[in-house]
Amino acid sequence: MSLFLEVVSVAEAVEAVRRIAPPPGCEDVPLEDALYRVLARDVLADIDIPGFDRSTVDGYAVAAAETTGASEAIPAMLQCRGRIGMGSADAGSIFPGSCRYVPTGGALPAGADAVVMIEHAEQIGDDILVHRPVAPGENVIFCGEDFGAGKVALERGRVLTPREIGVAAAVGADRVSVVKMPRIGIISTGNELVPVVETPGPGEVRDANSYLAGAFVTERGCHPVYFGIVRDDRAVLKRAVSSALDRCDAVLVSGGSSKDERDNTAAVVAELGEVLVHGIALAPGKPTIIGTARGKPVIGLPGHPASAFVVLVAVVDHLLAAMRQTAVSRRTVRARLTQNVPSTRGREDYVRVSLGNGEATPVFGKSGLLNTLVQSEGVVRIPASSEGFEVGEEVEVILW
Amino acid sequence: MSLFLEVVSVAEAVEAVRRIAPPPGCEDVPLEDALYRVLARDVLADIDIPGFDRSTVDGYAVAAAETTGASEAIPAMLQCRGRIGMGSADAGSIFPGSCRYVPTGGALPAGADAVVMIEHAEQIGDDILVHRPVAPGENVIFCGEDFGAGKVALERGRVLTPREIGVAAAVGADRVSVVKMPRIGIISTGNELVPVVETPGPGEVRDANSYLAGAFVTERGCHPVYFGIVRDDRAVLKRAVSSALDRCDAVLVSGGSSKDERDNTAAVVAELGEVLVHGIALAPGKPTIIGTARGKPVIGLPGHPASAFVVLVAVVDHLLAAMRQTAVSRRTVRARLTQNVPSTRGREDYVRVSLGNGEATPVFGKSGLLNTLVQSEGVVRIPASSEGFEVGEEVEVILW
């Protein structure tokens, strides 16, 4: 292998991970456990929702035509034919010249097509004075208007946020068919690494990457499986990756991907399968490996957590989204740069920035500093074709 | 009680829920279980991080001064005194005229203060030709430069996202002290409600609110405790709220808050404690109750899920954030309106919008339609002092 990396563009790397993402299975889960899962099948409304013409206010169910021209000065007068109970199976009917009280969410009686809000009516004995006209359909949700029986209420591929969970409940989906949570094996490799519970000696650092990558894949709706720290030993790493492949749908190996004699990850992937990418035109994050083994993706991340995190955001996020059969959910804001941000043409630079008052300030300090991760709110991506952005330019910030 | 609501502003409602938020306890949890928890105590670095001068690249550790003026034409020549192993306890030292190979993450030898990237050097036998000068500190993180021993690495109140989890691991916090997850009791009330597994009969609808509210509080880092559906019966509701107060830190009751004879929630709260707010100048979401009982917040939400969700976002979010002792985490984008959005002065309107191409389009259809929740990406808040926004105006969209 050559000493220098033959790098591919970030776009090529993203294409590669999307191509190798294994097709997910699906499973049924109870709706209350489905938050943030991805729908594997459309959710259909089992019946018309609502199943009846429903009032959206407290007021009087009327035939709208009978309120035409009503005003404070000349109200329409209707005889009130009692109240409709919530959940009542029979809302009765109204005949010309009459109305019925209906609470919010109650069913309209036959003959009614609108509801006069209680604030716009006055009760005088059995009579109701209507002070404002209502249009047909006003303050009413008609039967099936929200979701029609058999129609798609939520499309497959949707992530189930609280709003989708509420809609699924309304249409009777107490269980939903969702994409299986990908199991992502997480391995850290490096003779310098010690577990978090230990105090590093000279030359040693704690394994932050296992935690960082584990939390990242959890946030992205996947299940992390931890395989701990592996020394810089090709045979040992091969056993660890092999074991992770047995139990997981994809494997992330951090460290061991620099292009020198410690380049164990690429060697192991080559032995177990195929290295597709070795080096991305990305800063930080260049020494990244993309490969497959036994039909599963194996990604080699840089050993430094700050670099590894950029690769997680710029590349691995796309892999996980593809494995979940959903789009990458990325929140961005636009902000003006408070400083020039130079960049090297030919590589994509991810510059950490802090945000405030609509301004993005590049975070000072060496990019290898871990503290820059928690002092920044996001990154500005500088395309490979650009030599950077100038102070005052409006840029897109990818929120971490 | 009067027939009409004496409404307070949204700001007053938010102030009220913040005031009654019970102080949270704290607990220690393993770092791997701490994602999205809120730090109850600062996390300090136990030792200097890194604990040694550390290379951020593969290259040659040098005394920067010895590379001054180096160029392709006239390289600096240094004798290479071997390689430093990763995690090696002794990185040795260099003397004038010499350097040592150091891998990314490796410790610098004594006497070195910079690292020449391998790409900028050439090995000729035992000698290294350096083609570019390096500045002191270049490609090096000095001992303690990332986090100083005993210094705050993460402040209390911070939400532990993957980045914070990674930093906590790096500074040795295998357990963290976090705010206890508030337990939020969830009750739905209404004779019209049936469980999600049942098919609603005439006049009936499924209880979507329990799922919606449960998912919302889960998303906001709280633990939902479900108490099911309660009929419109004051004594039964009182028992349910009382039972929820026994087991939870706050209670959300949806339905039963319209200001008519079904106004059970306010009556129950008044019997068990105190009603502080009964009606908010908010559309949708007016029939909202804020009260306390046994020192715990009890919130009455509108029965309609679309209205309840607005109250969750506009008001309850602040309660949950206060209970977790953190700020409301709200993502917003700016977008131009594609249409006029009229509003009534004196109340805060939350208008659902869909987003695309930097434009916000009000979602058509009646606000009582549940499907508007999943057809919108967020809401535009129209302040009580405004009569609305005009087409083309740039507005802030609160992402759901």
TrEMBL record, chains A, B:
GO terms for molecular function: molybdopterin molybdotransferase activity. InterPro entries: MoaB/Mog-like_dom_sf (IPR036425), MoaB/Mog_dom (IPR001453), MoeA-like (IPR038987), MoeA_C_domain_IV (IPR005111), MoeA_C_domain_IV_sf (IPR036688), MoeA_linker/N (IPR005110), MoeA_linker/N_sf (IPR036135). GO terms for biological process: Mo-molybdopterin cofactor biosynthetic process. Signal peptide: none annotated. Residues 185-322 form the MoaB/Mog domain. One of its GO terms (cellular component) is cytoplasm. Pathway: Cofactor biosynthesis; molybdopterin biosynthesis. This is Molybdenum cofactor biosynthesis protein MoeA. The keyword Cell division does not apply. Keywords: Molybdenum cofactor biosynthesis.
